[in-house]
Design a protein that fits this description.
The protein is mostly beta strands. It is built from no helices and 17 strands. The strands form three sheets. Strands 1, 2, 8, 9, 10, 11, 12, 13, 14, 15, 16 and 17 form a twelve-stranded mixed β-sheet that branches. A three-stranded antiparallel β-sheet has the order 3-6-7, with no helix packed on it.
Length: 232
């Protein structure tokens, strides 16, 4: 599929486009523990965050967000990325409690004709948790994007709705206009920067947020430790 700018085709958003929590659960159902730095928001949340690895508990999270947040590698993409991924979005307003989606990716074509078909399924998270319970909740979002020769692509998510069950920061419903500027780092990882705005229940700028999507084998439990940004 080729497209220009952003458009919606049959309910699918199209775009043309150029390790963290560990609370001891093997089945993807646990929590997460502390980090460094501080962020406080109008959503009545505060958190700390740095680098690249997380340990979990229901009240605090130690998260790793280290690395270059720019997803583009400047090199050819490292293989195709079809399969299942855990996408963790570390919002600048509370980087230690990332929003999470399970993403199914279909990588098709090559060169200028290469496209990715993504389906983002929100995952439930208790307030203050990074790993519990992580069950599908809300409506999946399908997106089709084009991939540049350097492995860079942009995922536009205008009007994204995050149900309260998938919001580990406050537990309330969120309306978000989000753009993911991504790059393929390997067949098992794509990552980059997030930008946009929380539009409901209040306006908040998301510039400076990061994300990472790490491969998870089909049928395997979601990992307790996962990246939230690109590696250096």
């Amino acid at each position: 599929m080729r497209c220009l700018g952003w458009m919606v085709v049959g309910g699918i958003v199209c775009a043309c486009g150029p390790v963290v929590a560990d609370d001891g659960g093997a089945d993807g159902g646990s929590d997460s523990g502390g980090a460094s730095g501080t962020a406080t928001t109008g959503l009545d949340s505060s958190a700390t965050g740095t680098g690249t690895t997380v340990a979990s508990s229901t009240t605090s999270t130690s998260i790793s967000t280290s690395g270059d947040p720019d997803g583009s590698t400047g090199e050819a993409p490292q293989g195709e990325i079809s399969g299942r991924f855990l996408l963790a979005f570390s919002a600048v307003i509370d980087p230690t409690h990332p929003l999470q989606w399970e993403v199914q990716v279909k990588d098709s074509g090559a060169g200028a004709a290469r496209t990715l078909e993504l389906v983002l399924q929100p995952l439930s998270l208790d307030v203050g948790s990074t790993t519990t319970p992580r069950q599908p909740v809300g409506t999946p979002t399908p997106v089709v994007v084009e991939v540049g020769d350097d492995g860079a692509f942009t995922v536009p998510l205008p009007g994204l709705q995050v149900p309260g069950e998938a919001n580990p920061i406050t537990g309330g419903d969120l309306g978000v206009s989000l753009v993911l500027a991504a790059g393929i780092r390997s067949p098992d990882l794509w990552c980059g920067e997030g930008m946009g705005t929380v539009t409901q229940p209040l306006m908040l700028d998301l510039a400076g947020s990061t994300f990472a999507a790490a491969r998870v084998d089909d049928g395997a439990p979601l990992p307790d430790a996962f990246p939230t940004s690109c590696p250096q």
